[in-house]
Design brief:
The protein contains 13 helices and ten strands. By secondary structure, it is of the alpha/beta class.
Length: 267
């Protein structure tokens, strides 16, 4: 299980400094969307230059113009680039083909996707499929993932607008699972997305206990308390931002995440 450090809303130098502090305890380094929007590919280039042995993720969140944007990322040194799963299917397909051409990787951000869309995306077994609670959801008072068993029982209510997120697609589809109001982020003992199991089986609406057939990442307000619950997802990547970068002692925070993962993995 890899820890991906998400670096956002800071300068390039601040991002480099944060990554240097926590380098022994992290595996992947994410050049966040805001960092790319503010400073362009220079942010990706700088991060790869400083950390050539780390996996560098360019969180460009491509929604269109796939080949151009992914080539920008890969030319700048990114090992992984991100595409929104809600983008047109042709866009995702072009991202996958571009990654293959360059010998790089794709992360599909499942924010605002339905289980049916995830089922279609599941054919991309080589991609990392990222469950994501958005920053706006977290800061807006929030939504969080809910646990196994809740999906079937409440999906109809979610489609009808439960949780007050403004429409059927966003309530069950923001991250592909049922969402409920509560503390922002993915909290302690909270849910494990089951719709990815349906996607893995290729049968929309079916539920599998294990999404292990796909490469999974989890992102959005992850804390130490949430790790035991998330561990059952068997994610390849845990994307952690403010729990490390905004901690009083980022080094200690990053070390704690690594230690917790090792302990959970040894059980």
């Amino acid at each position: 299980m890899n820890i991906q450090l998400a670096l956002d809303r800071m300068s390039i130098q601040e991002a480099i400094d944060m990554a240097k502090l926590t380098e022994p305890y992290i595996d992947w380094i994410e050049v966040g969307t805001s960092l790319i929007k503010e400073f362009g590919m220079a942010a990706v280039e700088s991060m790869k230059r400083e950390f050539p042995s780390k996996v560098i993720v360019a969180d460009v969140k491509t929604f269109d113009n796939a080949v151009y944007e992914f080539e920008l990322c890969y030319k700048a040194g990114a090992d992984v680039a991100t595409v929104m799963g809600a983008s047109p299917p042709v866009t995702v397909e072009l991202c996958m083909k571009t990654a293959q051409t360059w010998g790089r990787q794709v992360m599909i951000d499942l924010l605002h996707t339905t289980p049916e869309e995830q089922a279609a995306l599941a054919r991309y077994r080589e991609a990392v499929h990222c469950f994501h609670v958005s920053k706006d959801q977290q800061e807006g008072g929030g939504s969080r993932l809910t646990g196994p068993g809740a999906y079937e029982a409440a999906s109809d209510a979610g489609r009808a607008g439960n949780a007050g997120l403004g429409g059927s697609r966003s309530t069950t589809g923001t991250n592909g699972t049922l969402v409920s109001s509560g503390a922002g982020g993915i909290g302690a003992g909270e849910a494990l997305p089951r719709s990815m199991g349906a996607a893995a089986s290729g049968a929309p609406g079916s539920v599998s206990e294990s999404p292990a057939e796909l490469r999974i990442a989890a992102a959005g307000g992850i804390t130490l308390d949430s790790l035991p619950g998330l561990f059952a997802m068997k994610p390849e990547v845990l994307i952690v931002g403010s729990a490390i970068t905004k901690a009083a002692d980022p080094v200690a925070a990053a070390r704690s995440f690594q230690d917790c993962i090792r302990k959970l993995g040894s059980r």
